[in-house]
Amino acid sequence: MKSFIWSFEIYLLGLLIIGCNKMESSQKAEQQNWWKEAIVYEVYPRSFNDSDGDGIGDLQGVIQKLDYLKSLGVDVIWLGPMYQSPNADNGYDISNYEKIMDEFGTMADFDSLLAGLHKRDMKLILDLVVNHTSDEHRWFKESRKSKDNPYRDFYIWKDPAPDGGPPNNWVSYFSGSAWQMDSTTNQYYLHLFAKKQPDLNWDNPAVRDSIYSMMHFWLDKGVDGFRMDVVSLYSKDPDFPSFPPDFNGDFAHFYANGPHEHEYLKEMNRRVLSQYDIMTVGEASGVNLDEAPLYVSPDRHELDMIFQFELMGIDHQSGNYLEHRDWKLPEFKQIITKWDTAMAGKGWNSIFLGNHDNPRIVSRFGDDENYRRESAKTLATFLMTMRGTPYLYQGDELGMTNAPFKTINDFRDIDTFNKYKEIKAKGGDIDHFLDQERMFGRDNARTPMQWNDQPYAGFSTHEPWIMVNPNYTEINAAKEDSLQHSVLNYYREVISYRKNHPGLVYGDFDVLDPPNKKVFAYLRNGQQNHFLVVMNFSGQEVTFQLPDRAATRNWNVELDSYYEGPSVKNGEVVLKPWQSVIYREL
User: Is 283 a catalytic site residue?
Assistant: First the structure.
């Protein structure tokens, strides 16, 4: 009888364990989502592919390359602004949110692009640029007519200071005052960016209603989400306080996270975002570790992810974006680790090293002179083995580099031009400024996509709107596609590997030997598989000693950027310059 009771108790315990496991599995499944498992590829349409020979990329040009994008293995295309715009800031100054820029094509072209992506089981997200509009937008044209115009409060207008100057000492991100006098009504309007980009007044419910209506327009077409430009700047401090005397020049932290920021994002989620199965990622400059979960914690119902920019400042002098500083690998690891730790269980990270606003990743974080291919592959390994959604920028997969801009006339970015004029007017060191822009300038990422070794890199049959990097004869998609162990084909392999191993998406992150100055190594511990990633971030051969918690385990080489498969022997890994290896525990 006792034996029967004991057996029955074991049976009940087994049912309880099974039930708990099912509950745990269900809970974990609820935490999963397609946008967490997706790999996002940013297309900057002006520089991607020109279909009509005018030197400017367009929507039909993107359509022509959909099979290429599919072959890469990416799931989501983030399309830069293609809305009607006078292009003061390359489309980030929008004059009509519901029309396509003439240079890029028509709404029919957009519909074809969206259909083509969905046919290939890929998704499309758009840039949502609603902190500001163009000064040529209908709303602003009306707003500036008179103080009692119905659209006056769509923007932020202020009387001059007692001395007739701007209302406060705020500075535009693109240099100069953030206020522009408008003689029609003798008031200033706020523009945190170019003077042709007046800031919208998010405190006006009519503004928010109009934005939400526009968002519904695109989502009802079938768009799969939004990348939200400068999302952290929507709400402004209603007192518009001047910078204090000890201000350190960190505009983003001063302007970001206004008093109604989260109220408005919750409203946007409730009225728009929650009604669709989409993804959202916000460009969140000025958002720190404590503030980030407020944007992305699932229970807050705001955004899915944000781009945070601490890593993007690693090579800048504090408070001075124009001054370069040398950085060390332990700093890089520290930033990555603390953001992963801060967001674990509280939200979801975006993993990126570059985009249209930053220089080429192999020139910035790799070695584009001596080990371009090798370092490009290691950066790909990093992007595809981190916890979070990885974002690629067009040309990363080819190992494209910064461009050899010679004079100011080679640049096209309004930010570069404005800073150049300001420094020149002050008698500053122009040569030094141009040296810094060659490293940091946004135009580095905006040179045409290098498709082949034909004139203009196969981007166009006409001279492009910005210079083609002259190394296109060596670095181009056609050549990369034909080489077995090219950067492009390695990207395809590591992307495929990530997609086949959810542990690299959801698994815990455990960095090994944080102080090591040459090797970045970590464990990714998933439910079914455990992985070891070891990357040499130097131009020297190194021997890396695994710590005890990893050294005694049985590791199998899964992917090696050198295709030689260095095994773990006696807890050591020998890595060639810029070599990276992914291991899986047997």
Answer: yes
